[in-house]
Amino acid sequence: MQKYKKIAYIALILLIIICVFFIYKVFAKNGQKDNDTIAKSLEDIKLLEGKFLNIFNELNNIKFENYQISANEIKKQNNSSKESSEGQGEGSSSDSKGGSGNSEESSKTEESGGSQTKEDSSKNTEYSLKEQGILTQDTEINWKQIKNDVENLYTPLYNMTLDLYQTNTKQQDIINFNKEYDNLTKAVKNEDKELTLYELSTLYNYLPQFIANCTENTKEVIISKTKDNILKAYSLLEKEQWATIAENINLAAQEFTKLVTDINSNEKTNQYNINKAYIMINEMQNAVLLKDKQIFLIKYKNVIEELENI
C-alpha cells in the first residue's frame, strides 16, 4: 500500500512539473510576442516621425544637407567635312564633256544626304554641387512632393495603428490621431501652408506619448518631447506669434534639461552632443527676440539635425 502511495506522489509531482513547464512556455511565448509587437510599434512611430519632419522641412524648403547635387544635360556636336578633290576633278572634266556629268554628280550628292557636312550630336550629363542654405533657398513650396508624401504615408499609418492597439496606448488617442491625419491630408490638398503646419504640429504632439508606451528608454521620450515643443514654435512662424514661439522654446529647453542633468541616461559618447544641443536650443531665443524668421529657421535646422544625431 505504501508502495502505491509513493508512486502516486511521484506521478503527481511529475504532473505538476509538466504543467508548470507548459505554463511557463506559454507565458514566455506570449511575452516574446508582446515584446516583438512593441518593438514593431516603436519602429513604425519612428518612421512616421521622420516623415513628418521631412514634410515640416519641405514647407520651408529646408534641407539638412548643405549641398545638393544637380545634373545638367549638355549637347556635344562633332562636325566632320568631307572634301573630295577627286570629285571636283571629275566635275571639271565633265564640264568639258557636257552638262550630263554635273547632273549625275548632283544626283549622287542628293542620295548621300544632300550635304557634305555631317553633324553627330550626343547627350552628356554634367554634375555639380549646388550650395543650399536658408538665406539663399527658393521660396516656392513643392506641393506636388508634399502631396505624394502624405498620400504614401497612409500604408505605414495603418501598420502603426494595428501595432499600437497591442500596447497600453489609449484607443481614443489612436482614433483621434487617424482623424487628424485626414485633416492634414485635406490641408495639403488645399495647399494651405498655415493649416498644414498646424495639423502637422497636432499630429506630432501624439508621438511622445506613443513612444513612451513602447519603450522604457527615457532618452527617446525626452528627445521626442523636446522636438515636439520646437515644432510647435516652428508651426507658428507664419503667424509670427513670437510670444507663443518663445514659450515653446522655453518648454523645449526645460524638457531637454532632464537629459542634461540625468547622469544615468547620459552615455559618454553622446555627452558632447547633448551639451551642444542644449546650447543650441537656448540660442533659438535670440532669433525670437529679433523676430526674424530666417534666422529662426537657420537655428531650427541646426538644432533638429543635432537632436537626430543623439
Q: Mind explaining what this structure looks like?
A:
With 310 residues, the chain is mainly alpha-helical. Helix content is 70%, strand content 10%. It has twelve helices and two strands, in the order αβααβααααααααα. The protein has a two-stranded antiparallel sheet with strand order 1-2. α11 runs antiparallel to α12. The longest helix has 57 residues. 22% of the residues are buried. About 16% of the residues have low confidence.
Give a summary of the structure in a few sentences.
The protein is mainly alpha-helical. The protein is built from twelve helices and two strands, in the order H-E-H-H-E-H-H-H-H-H-H-H-H-H.
Keywords:
70% helix, mainly alpha
Q: Give the SSE order as H and E letters.
A: HEHHEHHHHHHHHH
Q: Structural class, from helix and strand content?
A: mainly alpha
Low-pLDDT sequence parts: 26-33, 80-101, 103-121
N-to-C terminal Cα separation, in Å?
Answer: 72 Å
